[in-house]
Amino acid sequence: MLLTIQQGVETAQENLEELIPEEKTLSIYDLIMDGGLGGQIIIAILVVLLAIALYIYFERFLAIKAASKTDKNFMNQIRDHISNGKLEAAKILCAQASSPASRLIEKGVSRIGKPLEDINTAIENAGKLEIYKLEKNVSVIATIAGAAPMIGFLGTVIGMIVAIHEIANAGGQIDIKMLSDGLYTAMTTTVAGLIVGIIAYIAYNHLVVRTNKVIYQMEAQSVDFLDLLNEPA
């Protein structure tokens, strides 16, 4: 009697375990690998674009950070040298500072004695070159920010094409398991493209803000230098 009851309980437990669906977990690696060859190629391209964007960001960030460091007494020292007629000492001070603003001042010092308009033009031309150096390769990050989501959407289209192709070949019998490759490709590539695009967009805007800060410093010191030349002797 007891043996029969125990067997019945065990059988009921086994039936209950069969009825409870097994919880399925899926890692990022599984999502990528289950997406098929098309999805894997799209993801690989996005990973490369992300690596390029991060490399350019950190390289430019360090360069812009170094360019933004200025000595608060720099212009006062330039003023003293020019007032005392020590132009060579002023040039040496600019060379030692080695910043975009100091290079503009050095260009202006080398033109002292010429008309003020020529000095202003020389400083403006030098400023354009310095801005170009600061913004080097930053446009690549902007391109990646715009292209990455579109590449992700391309993967979405490819995934949907794969899913429709599977439906067409199924002969009217649709199996969700059979469609999983196309659906995984569609979803994972879209998410990956958006993630890369968002990271690149944030990185680009941060570099633009930091670059504008350096440009403002260059403009301020250039104006101070021109005002210095306009002062009465």
Automatic annotation (TrEMBL):
Keyword terms: Cell membrane, Membrane, Protein transport, Transmembrane, Transmembrane helix, Transport
Annotated Gene Ontology cellular component terms: plasma membrane
Location(s) in or outside the cell: Cell membrane; Membrane
KW RNA-binding (keyword) present: no
InterPro entries (UniProt xref): ExbB/TolQ_transport, MotA_ExbB_proton_chnl
GO biological process, one term: protein import
Transmembrane region(s): 37-58, 138-164, 184-204
PANTHER family to which the protein is assigned, alphabetical: PROTEIN TOLQ (PTHR30625), TOLQ-RELATED (PTHR30625:SF17)
Family statement drawn from the similarity comment of this UniProt entry: Belongs to the exbB/tolQ family.
The protein's name in its UniProt record: MotA/TolQ/ExbB proton channel family protein
Organism name: Aureibaculum algae
